[in-house]
Amino acid sequence: MTQPGSLDPLAFFGALWRRAVASLTTFIGISALFYRLLTTLGRPFGSPRLMIREYAQQIYRLGVLGWPIVALSGLLLGLSIIVYIAAQLRKIHLEELIGSLLVIVVVRELGPILTALLVLLRSGAAMIVEIGTMKLDREMEALELLGLEPELVVGAPRFWGLLLSLIILFGIFLFSAIIGGYLFGQVLTDIYWQKLWRSFLAALNWEDVVISAGKIVFFAMAMGSIAIYYGLATKDHWESLAEQTAAGAVAALIALGLLNTLLSLVRYVA
Q: Are 108 and 205 spatial neighbours (Cβ–Cβ below 8 Å)?
């Protein structure tokens, strides 16, 4: 018999096994939902007027309302790189490395993941709450009674709206980081615009653009699938909504970290 307060190996491995099975089941469920959402590309789920309204509403919520914080974050990142790091490089006469640093830090590494994290913090959890509230209010059952698929009617506009919004926000982030940083560099330091611009363009290549675009696309699809899945998994009580929101936010954060690591390894290994 196991003494009180001691660790039972069977109970420990049993709990570990149940957690692994639950995680695998969740992963399979998210993957299946992702496939169903992916097949909605170009597929009408209602009248054209309804589709246009739903997509426009999601893009407005996710992208238009979120651009100021993304632009400000990009501006601060560009300012820190160009003003502070460039000032140190000038002391050792290596200003030509500024462009490489911008490409590595802003375009390739921090830019995509920071944009995705900002959208996750602002809109990811809100999407789970919105869908979970719709389920608690029996709106999903109403859609089923109308002969519609709630996963597609509710999920598709948010999935593709998040993808389009994240692409636009990433462009705003890059513009703010590079252009805004250059402008501050002109005001606060003696760095010439032309030299910085030529250095950046010389360091930028098509692989960086492809990898960054791939990160944004995968980040958006992962966040959208996870948020929709956890929102739909809400049970018939409000405590479940809080649990699903917290679990979905953590799952999305882990997915972003894993995807960012894997895609970065593709760039450096290839």
A: no
Is residue 159 a part of any domain in this protein?
yes
**Angstrom distances, CA of residue 129 to CA of 63, 236, 246:** 18, 14, 10
pTM: 0.84
CA dihedral 220, 222, 227, 228 (to 10 degrees): 100
DSSP H stretches of helix in the chain: 9-38, 48-59, 67-79, 86-91, 98-102, 111-119, 125-136, 139-145, 150-175, 181-188, 193-203, 206-232, 238-269
C-alpha span between 37 and 245 (Å, rounded): 20
Residue 11 has pLDDT above 50, yes or no: yes
217 alpha-carbon distance from chain centroid: 9
Give the residue numbers spanning the domain of 86: 46-269
Q: Which of 119-123, 173-177, 199-203, 219-223 ranks highest by mean pLDDT?
A: 219-223
69 lies in some domain: yes
Residue 6 lies in a domain: no
In this prediction, residues 70-83 reach a mean pLDDT of: 81
CA distance 15 to 21: 10
The count of structural domains within the chain is: 1
Cα 224 from Cα 41, distance rounded (Å): 14
